[in-house]
## 1
Amino acid sequence: MKTKLHWLATVAVTAGLAAGLTWGAPVEAGKADDTLNWSTNREIAVVDPYYNNTRELVIMGHMGWDGLVLRDLETGEIKPLLAKSWKWVGDTAIDFELRDDVVFHDGSAFDADDVVYTLNHVSNKDNAVLTLRNVSWIKNAEKLGSHSVRVNLHKPFPPAFAYLSNAVFILPSGHYDNAPILAEGKPDYGAVKPVGTGPYKVADVKAGEYVLMEKNDNYFADSAKGQPQIGKMRFRTITEMNTQIAELMTGGLDWIWDVPKEQAERMDGTPALTIENAKTFRISYMAFDVDGDSGTDVFTNKKVRQALSHAINRESIAKNLVGPASEVIHSACHPDQFGCTQDVTKYEYDPAKAKAMLAEAGYPDGFEFDIYAYRQREFTEAVIGDLAKIGVKAKLNFMQYRALRDIVRKGETPINHMTWGSYSIPDVSAVVSHFFTHGPEDPAKDPKTKELLDVADNSVEPDTRKLYYNQAFERIASEAYWLPMFTYAKYYAFSKDLNFKASSDEIPRFYTTKWN
Amino acid sequence: MSNKILEVQDLTIDIPTPSGTLHAVQKVSIHVDRGETLCIVGESGCGKSLTSLAIMDLLPKKAMRTATRLELAGESVFEIGERRMSDIRGNRMSMIFQEPMTSLNPAYTIGDQLTEALRRHRKVSRSEARDRAVFLLEKVGITAAASRLGQYPHQLSGGLRQRVMIAMALMCGPDLIIADEPTTALDVTIQAQILHLLAELQREFNMGLILITHDLGVVARIADRVAVMYAGQIVETGSAAQIFSAPAHPYTRGLLACIPIPGKTERGAHLGAIPGIVPSLVGKMSGCHFASRCPEVQQNCTSAPIPQFEALDPGRSVRCLQAENAAMRSAGQEGVA
Amino acid sequence: MIQFALKRLGVAVLVALTVSILSFSMIYLSGDPAIALAGEGASEEDIENVRRVYGFERPIIVQYGDWLLRALQGNLGHSNYLKADVASVVFERLPTTMILGASALIFALVLSIPLGVLAAIRPNSMIDRFALTVAMIGQAMPSFWFALTLILWFGINWRLLPISGTASWQNFVMPSIALGYYVTPAVMRLTRAGMLEVLSSDYIRTARAKGLRPMTVLFKHALRNAIIPVVSLSAVQFGFMLGGSIVIETIFAINGLGFLVWESILRADLPMMQAIVLVLSIIYILLTFLADLLNGFLDPRIRVS
Amino acid sequence: MTDATKSPSVPQGGSILSSGLDDVLEPSPGSLMRKRVFGHTGLVIGGGVLLIIFLMAVLAPVISPGDPYDQDLSRKLIPPIWHDSDKVTWDHPLGTDLLGRDYMTRLFYGARISLLIGFAAMLISGVIGTTLGVLAGYFGGKVDMVVNFIITTRLSMPVVLVALAVVSLVGSSLTVVIWVLGLLIWDRFAVVMRSATQQVRGLDFVAAAQSLGCSTRRIILSEIMPNIANHLIVIATIEMAHAILLEAALSFLGLGVQPPDPSWGLMIAEAKGMIFFDAWTITIPGIALFALVLSINLLGDGMRDVTAPENRN
């Protein structure tokens, strides 16, 4: 036995030494190594802007690829990027003149064939890009010359440039042709080695663990994105927020976000860190089961919905739990979106009034119901606490997004407390038209609202759209189909070495980031 | 006397228990000569096994051992330290236990377990040790001894295992063997063989043998001398002949009445029993331990500690006031006559 | 022997099959996998498209049969989420999991066996009490709390060890301790109980009567017999640590199988989940089989029967 | 042979002591049991702490300074009174949580839920595991094979994983958590009860009952069960502690008991974010949970020692 223990110890020591030798390479970190380490909780395996629909890939998409145009974050103005200029041809076609001085990471030159190939590939439903709505408005693309293309639309689509600047990245022609074929006979587009024209190129990917990007030294000179500054950017998946914070505090990471308010506030004193609270496009809302599908019919009563709306102290939740950049909203849209208005019926916090209305509606002693949520449990807990004060007992069902969305779509939730990010699209159609045009998540299926939205959605005339959207928002507010709660604010925490500016669309532009 | 292999004087074992000190063995004195067989008899719990473990220094830790003398072949081995003691154990004295089924380690071969003591105590090579093991296995009557070395205990019967245990005890050629009820767990037919074997080997190697047993039949057959223990004390010692022909202690007489001794008990005779239970040995004891069950108990039996009375015959002693009185009386009568 | 192995294999196959049916139906009973795959906030159109492309509209039985048929041909399929061959992902992550599991087990054994032995040699002594305390703390402290406490001291305050990832062997120190510590109490108690029992056995008395040195008695005669149940327990625990270390893998950002299967369940990545569940159950059965073999080596009585 | 020389009970292969001492030390059952129970430090401490926690749970409405659900975001995260901070107040001796709820009150109410989870999950798993184990052990053969298969299948799926999967997908509530844990942790019951039953089944009195023509039901309930009860108690305490800890792990991953009901596991999990900054938020419920699990384990160990004298050391 004694010898066996010795043997074990020897093996352990040898294994340790061997491991030390092979894994001994220290991870580059921080300014000294010219490597920006950033992290989120999501696993990234596919580095492709179309076959991965995570926000991380939108961020990396802007780093590795370029769209035809770029939206200026300050002014909202659309600027040229891969396209030098463009013009509408009628309501359903746009002609683009392309740059002729751009090369892909693999050295091939960029021209009209690449745009035509990319747009025709992604708009074809059979190729199953993950977020179809980003591209489904494109009918096809035609080559007009070596550096000019025409993009045809199915029908007039006002936010076309919002999508073109944010979600339509150009790949080299024939990019997916050599995609490996799966056993099922389908090509695996996600497995193709990423190539783009962007300021950073993908250097190394370990599925689910990290993505390493390196500066593209041949990035075209006068790009609206500017020139890349930092040598390397390493994305790592760290699921646990405490671990992210620990790594940030010890220099293993340079940048994290989504830090809960309390932790962010307490980190604020740390000398090496910058803490920033920034607006996002995500809103929090509660949807009432207006048509009574869930089996609880209390919320078919408008008075009850309004009473609950008065009972919840949204201001307090926004300020105490979310962050200073969060604001209470009153209509079903984000204030920064085109067409959004706060000039609708408002439900100020007034528990006494709420209680009175509840009594009026026939529930002087309150009632019980199930509330469903999936994100930031403490926010929903606060709602439950507020409701308890007017005698309404809400039982929380906290679920994974997938499971919850399924039952929300089936209409089985008396109240669901959800969030919506509008795909960072600065147009109200990305939120209100999604929820109130009789889709499965429409809580009311009100014909009047749909009518108004249909007009707004199909017009290209900004004033017409605004007018009809505003009417729709007023109807949603006065009928209290939804209780819009507040805009999310995100805490960013990053190294003092980093010159970083947060943007409200929740897409950190790392390609503009420099070391201080 | 150089012939004395073992001499123990006033061996006392105290064991602390939650309810008081247990006086498990009290002032036991025994000695064994070379070539002599001493049988310690007594019922279970009388302290005879503890006595043997005390001699081997194998008592559990909380048991406290004291003695005025504990000598092996004239050399005092009393409190010489665990390390030195382990040089003696298995070497100059060895022990055979009651349970052959469980006394061998199931994980190792017979050969391994036989040779390890020899290789521990003597500078011998592996093959020498092996040869000795084969020699002894044959000695204890195991056939195909060489092939047995590779076998595991569970592959052997109880009788064979006890033979292996005996061979194991003999490996280093000890001066003294202590056998603690070596046949109790065996079939009756095998018991006789094993005892016979022990006696034979003892003669052949001229060792001292302490045989602990509660089987008086066994005693009658192989004992040279006998020590009868009761409740932690030796109540009577003497040669086998003396004990069997003229038991002096009422307890010894009771024991003998319980058991048919070949050639001594007449056919059809009534077998007796000793009524009552063994007294608790916890706390302070006074008087004769057997008093509560003794048919001849007198008033003075319970008042004071009973000393060993040695004047009966040479080499004989008894711990009983009545026996002493009787002896006095008979001595007096002889004097008168 | 061969018959024994074949029988074990049969059980393994049956268990794996049962587990795969259970997990497959569980995912289906719990909501639409298309929603998970389409991602948060996906539109109706996206979800429909995903459902069509991935064939989720077919009956469950057909989908399962389809999967099983291909699995039997050695094709574990393609991850819906990671867009990679399932088998290659599993085998890429298996070493990480194995290293973590093995180092955690080694830590647990190195800590608990000596403590258990010492505690058994001197019951109710200081060392026994110490061992008991170690075991009790291991038993009573939620593992995530313990893990975060390790990070706080070794990672942040003292900066002795890297906090997350798998970049170097130092990265495995804290997770191994956090994971292994949880196993320590069981192993220690079993070692202690086994040693106590063995030390009071007749053959130990025999060994001592032979004059063997205390160390020989302890290690050669006692530990070998006391360790037998520990071997079985270690095998089972090792199996658990491979798949059940989700919490530890999450905290230390270690991309192992446990974390992957958990994420796959959340993402309804059926082929991936099925493959891992399959691999885990086979590994578990292999481990118990190995433990039986090792026990047969340690205890000749088992070997013969 | 007669009484005098027949040894009453020489234990087979017992300890060194047992060959000579045990029959001398025969205990008188009643007083000795009392002495053992109160002389066993672990048992007394474990039982005592558990009793305190139990009383805390039962008397929560009486002894709590406030209402466990009464939130006020303006008084969130007040530290406990021993902290050097101007926010501390005797209104909240243990401070307040993230939503401004009184921590002491939640701790008292949390005891109810943690105890309930542990006890109920233990009960469910105990019934399942004991039934399977006893059936397998008693009948052997095919029944044993089937039960063994079920046990192996169950063991080849990691508990935490399955619990997480189920809870995350069907939604978590107190009832779901209890059932899921109960349906998952029966394996130890089954394994131990199986081997214990096998042992008892081989004993003479079972054979005697069988030969008397007792029904199987009767034999299992009145001959076998009483003899494996002490194993049952020990496993029950282990699994109770196990269930409480598993609930904490589920809570860590956001899938334990649902707020606003406080369980200690949930309180620890909710506070985990503050571990680097306000460690007391995790330490207070952590120590409570620690004490609970520890006391259950001590109690189990103690009961094993007391009910099975051969395990004393």
## 2
Amino acid sequence: MLLAAIVAILVTMALTLLRGLLGPTACDRMLATNLFGTKTVLLIAVGGHALGWESFVDVALLYAMINFVSAIAIMRFFEYSSATAPLSTPPQRREGDHE
Amino acid sequence: MDLMVLLAGLFNYWVAIVLMMSGFYVVIARGNLVKKLVGLGLFQASVFILYISIGKVQGGHAPILGALIERYSNPLPQVLILTAIVVGVATTAVGLALIVRIRAAYGTVEEAQILAQERAEDAAQAEHPDDPA
Amino acid sequence: MSELWAGLSALCLALGSLLCLTGAVGLLRFPDFFTRIHAVGVTDTLATPLLLLGLILQLGWCLDSFKLGLVVVFVLATNPTASHAMAKAALDAGLQPQLPDPPARRQDD
Amino acid sequence: MIERLLDLFLLALLLITSLAAIRLRDLFAVVMLFGIYSLSAAALFMTLDAVDVAFTEAAVGAGITSVLMLATLRLTGRYEQPPTHSPLLPLGVVVTTGAVLIYATLDAPHFGDPTAPAQRQVAAHYLEASAGEVGVPNVVTAVLASYRGYDTLGETLVIFTAGLVVLLLLGIQPLQPHCPTRRPASEQVVLQVIVKMLIPFILLFGAYVQFHGDFGAGGGFQAGVIIATGLVLYDLVFGDGAAQQVVPPRWLPRLAAAGVLLYGGVGVYGLLKGHALLDYRVLASEPLAGQHLGILLVELGVGLTVFTVVLAIFYAFSSRGWR
């Protein structure tokens, strides 16, 4: 069952990364990063239990915390970048250009 | 068969090298200074991965002494990388601060535009050597 | 008794994994940011405690399971908050939800 | 088997992420991918038995570095201009260098080989003798603070210097009493209530990591970053330099210097007692007790320096960017 859970988490991580790559808006990338963070917490917790890593719970706790802080930081970036000084606009397309 | 053994034994190092080279490519091929620093960060993280891969021992445990554990992974690369990570973020911060100042001085963080401005200034200086500016 | 715990733990792990996967599929397949955050925020907030509860049931009474309990509490507090904050930030940044008839729906609230 | 699977999967994620980061020109997306990259790297470190490294990478790479890069983007613009030069020459250089490096690995000992030279030299001594010589279960802490305390002193000085350089370059701008551009979104009540509840626990966790580093993952470097992160969170959510009222900017250089001095002082005390620099055995009547006390003090110095430097860097960027 633990192995199945690990595989499920890995698949979720891959799909999340795909959303992060596809975009299309910056908000989607923000969401993908946040979700990838929570999935890393789960991976550390389940993997650590299954494989017997040392003090994996401390690491999982730290990840959960850092993930929240970076989500808030990214959110603040959004708020202010749209509100105050205009950011330099891209040459042609605005969002999610893959060249 | 031989190739498979080689692949299994060296795969971690090869991936680390490819990651390193992708960071290196960003540093030398892209003009945006922030992007260059991101490239430097990628390069840095790949060096960390290389070192930690070297320190891993098959069937080993994390080097925290316990009663029933017989084999540990190598603590030395971990110590080196642990401090390198924190030093890395401090130096990245210095780089970012420099970029902020460059942006304040030149109005851009694109290498090509900064160089063009520098050349224009140099040319103006050459034409009017008495000008104190 | 221990078989009961093992069964419960397996059930929790299975449900958690399933929720994880549904959330990821929703993240990938839904049409716009607000539906995606809906898919992910809700499932993820339940999936993480379920998976960790499965682990706690396997570990039994020990310091590690207490700390995992702390992770559960932390995730239960922060995950919905982060989702809420992100959605609010996106709305304030000017991202509009895709609605069937945008002007009429936006008028009445 | 599962371990190897995890290893391969995470390496594949890292490859995809870094290749995508090269292609994207929206720098915000690049920073997001960089965050994902360091999270996967940290998970990879867990599978490679490097708990302490994973701990540090999570706190520093995913947390602080992304925040700083976003703050810089805020000040310098979000989009990269298309490259002006042809990519062929750099590509050639990169491919050649990579090929040479890969050729060099062909003779290297294979991954996980217990008989590799790297595993047999001084590392074997640390693993065998540290229980008797230093008496700390976490060998990484023992090597970091005791065997190689001299290195760590140097690293602490580098961090201190980097903090000073950032302060010199950017300075901490004085607070403006009221910012007219503040948006209602920054007054998120839910967020403020939750954060108010969480911050004490974050600080407590930081203290736990600081003092539990001898027995499990953790230590001064990580604890400093975690406590600073708690204050960063406070400042981000409550805005208007809330954290500066808790730790005023003028304290920062002094506190950082105090951390370095604490570390150096412990070292010099050994010299004054007629032993080598950073010989902790002189600190107490018994050698092991001395080692414990020395490691405690040294980690405290490191934690103080890292905490203040991270906070100073955050103040320097946020006082320009975020208000």
## 3
Amino acid sequence: MGDRNQVRLLWGAAALVAVVVVFTLIYKGSTGLQWILSGLTVGSIYALVAMGFSVIYSSTRVINFAQGEFTMLGGMMMFTLCTRGGLPLWLGFLLTVGIVTLLGAGFERAAIHPLKDQSVITVIIVTIGLAIFIRALAKWIWGTDPVKVASFTGDKPLRFFGASIVPQSLWVFGLTLIAVVLVFAFFNRTLLGKGMRAAADNPDAASLVGVSASTSSLVAWSIAAAVGAAAGAVIAPINFAAYDAGAMLGLKGFSAAVLGGLGSAPGAVVGGLMLGVLEMITAGFAPSGYKDAVAFLILILVLLIRPQGLLGKPADVKV
Amino acid sequence: MMVADTLLQIREVTKRFGGLAALKDVSFDVTVGEIKAMIGPNGAGKTTMFDVLTGILHPTAGDVMLKGESIVGLRPDQITAMGMIRTFQTIQLFEGMTALENVMVGCHCRTACGFASSGLRLPAARREEKDIREKSMDVLKDVGLATRAGEIGTNLPYGQQRMLELARALASEPDIILLDEPAAGLNQYETGELAGLLVRFRERGLTILIVEHDMGLVMQISDEIVVLDYGEIIARGAPQDVQNDPRVIEAYLGIEA
Amino acid sequence: MDKQLARLPDAESRNYRTLAISTAFILLIPVWARFIPGDVLHIDIVNVMVLAGIYACVVVGLNLLVGYAGQISLGHAAFFGIGAYTTAILCTRIHGFPTWLGVLAGTALSGAIGWLVGKPVLRLKGHYLAMATLGLGEIAFILFQQLKWLTGGTVGILNIPPLSMFGLKFDTDLKLYFVVWIIVMALMLLSINLIRSRVGRGLRALHSSEVAADAMGVNTSTYKVQVFVLSAAFAGLGGALFAHFQKYVNPESFVLAISIMFITMVVVGGMGNIWGGLIGVLLLTFLPPVIQALPQWLPGLPSGLQNFSNYELVLYGLLLILFMMFLPKGVADGLGRAADFTEVRARRLGDRRKAKRLEGR
Amino acid sequence: MAQKILRWKLPIALFCVLVAATLGSMGCGTQKVDTSKSVYKIGAVLSLSGPAAPLGQPEQNSLKMLESQLNAGAGVNGHKVQFIIEDDQSDPAKATAAITLLINQEGVSAMIGSSSTGATLAMVPVAQSTQTTLVCCAAGTAITKPVNKYIFRTPPTDSMAIDKVLGYLTGTLKATKIAILHDANAYGVGGATELAAKAPTKGITVTANESYGTTDTDMTPQLTKIQATPAQALVVWGTNPGPATIAKNMQQLAMKIPFIGSNGIANKTFITLAGSAANGVAFPGGNMLIPSSITAGTPWRNAVDKFTTDYTTAYGKAPDTFAAHGWDAGTILTTAMKTAGTSKAQIQTAVQATKGLVGIDGIYNYSATNHDGLTSADLIMIKIVNGAWTQIK
């Protein structure tokens, strides 16, 4: 498929989404706006998780099935540190991110690094093992009941044009924006980041840039864990943190990452927001039981038209 | 039905990747039973041409005819079935398969048993399997790898891996075989053997299109040479003519300097 | 001498022998299972083994897809479910519908749907294929939940009759045990044949390098679809047996976690090793009860560990990681190497002879 | 030749070992000693992990408590009682395996469980084929409708809760138009379907019947849909955290219509999660949640008070209704075994003959045609006022 077609397709997709959104707005007015706002909130949550997937993928080609668990841990830590421990938000947030990042890095050294020569699927199964492990541990520590973390800046909804949104959503938007800018800058502006991308494309090139696959993997896992934890901490007040929240977040995050194109941070955001908005609009129009089915159907269709996701690089046919 | 004795006709083939053209309306024929060499500096588009010929890539423009039928748009396996097969610049033996099994894969397009008959091991399947084995053994003997049949292909020494790839290709009973730098990484002695082998096959009526950097080999065996540079044919003709062609020398010096 | 060479051992030559013996093993299990006191291993072995056999049907097929053709699927619970629901619906709605026919129908329908979705989806590669299949699995799950008129919604389908064939009624776990495991062994035989065959080589070639396989004349796109259909059919068969085993189906038995369990069984057991699927199933089936039995074996464990539901999954996750770290090619691979070891001397002996003969060439 | 022998050596050796083991064990094949003579064994399959874990764990707690209390006393007819508890991980297949294990290997005389409707229905065929009495802690109507000889239930059924809700809607709220928003899982769908079916009989029209995924984090689209209808009240059928999210979303959308929950939110967790949004929410729940709702001095009230204090001292938190379900299931079976001993047939008869048994959830009366035990009279409507439960008289 030539580049021109690619671009055309992208615009096509964008136009399609735009049409759907505009239609919803016209047809449903403020209600439609409400759906879209909710969609954007949920979408940014997906986007944040998706970014974790993308970071690890773009530098190691591995899909980390424990990404959702990092997010879950983020929420649970916030609960322990701030709600239970009474620490100020900013401190709790920093500690949360710090601890989970260490966990991520530690796990990479302990279980991923030793597998550097193994097939990707093997590593993926290891991440599944990790997910089970973390989830069980969390259940052991925090029990089965979902917990509540107070919103950062109160629950008084902000309303405009008849739609309303909780302040916490703004925090989620903000974090998403910061995260995507940082991650993007890291992979495209810093030498290390560029080196890591090269490392994934072809190890020899990487050694030229002076980045070993080993460092690359360690850094990637740390970043992914950090993003995941930050996400968990910020979304905890919206979706109640619970030991088993990771599974759903992981699933949706993975979907978003693939939809946007694995390995592209902006793609993760686009994918996440698209998924979120589509889900909410479907929930609004269709019988709500089918909303996830529709979301997945659209996802699959997108992949069939564009096998590498919306912003992903096409897989090169090299002999 | 097929044109005189030209086996492969390449007509103004152009291949663009995004902006830049890897091949600019290249045209030449390969006649039955000849050894034609395609040479040129790295990045001249030789491998791209092979990919186009074998259906891995589709030409942006132009046409390719095998035995008088256009093969543009056909799947690689269909083209192989039509009697044109290739080897790869970087050895592409199948992991975990014995030398024998590798060659047996080569027989694929000449055999028919599908999931049902193979899964149930019907008599037909057994018979076919036996034939495939024996034929593959013969091919292995041909290239002198008979003693290695039971070993995992990728564990063989480099030279023998090249030979094995050749054998695998031959097992598909091709009319024309495209060799992508078959001598790469071979030592003097092995290269000599390869040369002998190719000539022998040609005597059996096999047509060969070869891409090779080893000028010695090229000059020794090829009947005609096509020189590519930046995706365009800059010279063609008998070995010695091409050898003395200023543009060719320039092109090569160009990359050496 | 050519004959001699033509009979050279290839990768699978040992399998038929192993299959025969392992069949004997497995068919004997119920006999000695009765003498394992329940407090050693806290499970009903026959009952657990029936379920294991049912999962094995799925995993053996999935191994052909993932291990040999190198195409991943995270949605096989869907085909498992389609098989289960098909026979469940037929046998409960149509009075006196022959259950074995229901099983066949389940297998067939599952395969057919596998073809429908496989054709488009298998153009995707790697993680994108994983995502697409995962999505299909989720969609199937949601349909199982939402199509109340057909599937009974979340409540599911009750009172599914036990399996019966040629006038025999397989209404106890023990009877079903033999049916299920004979089927599993039949599927194993089928897979071994397949892997040894032209098709099998094609699949392995496709796994190793799609481009090279294409160039060697293997119609990879068709093969992908066909092997996907086959694995879907196996999964459907497993699901149908499951329905008649549990006599009740509801969507909860076909969630994403089950798909992931299947793929995990394949990988832990050993991708691209015909025994991998089987070993993976047995391993992951018996791991939890063994873990559960740990406290009584090592009474030193802290009391917090005594409550099984707390630590079982923690250990399970850990072990999964460790298995992959120390046997990254799967347990079957490890066992295989162990078995080879006993043969090494014999092989050396044989090879030397062969070598001699060849020198005399 | 040597080759061949060696090739066969390993498998054959293993094979012989197995055969030897088999024959050996047959020789000294003393079946494992049957201890059930001295101890009354009751099996329990509960969801201790997975989605239904919040139900299974309190049930396990109270069963353990009951066991120790009985054995501290005379046990049952002088026999010690043992509840053998298995985790089904909220997975039907695991539930089937667990009940088979308990009946075949452990030789239990009766069964309890499971916590969720799906797992319970998966256990029914086994209980039936082994003619073992199964007292379940799940509320799904499908379990006892039609009545199955061996299957009994402790918790109030969804239909009872629904009757209670309908009564509240017509009586207190005088509502004629309601909207339903339910979890897409078995519990939510079961309740919603029945509510939608019964509402018209009470002169109530359902203006919207929407669902949400158990793990969804935003239900505003469904709510806006409902907002667009003339519904005078919203009935939410689901378990935490869904309803809490809905309460918060309603606050966000400034929806003022009353929120009526299911007995799935009859726990303090809902109040914690929903915070201020929880105020004004009404739901059907067991009397035991508000002991004062039971006439003081009655045996039931005393039982509830004792249970509550014991449980709180044992586990550091007040019991919820699930704890009560577990306790009652245990009590019903042990009471039956007083007369029936370990004979499965007699246990079934005895349980079915239960009359006026004082439990925690209520007073149990079973019969050949009714295996539900309780009636909607055993439920009350509860309203959350300033984060605390108050009974709606």
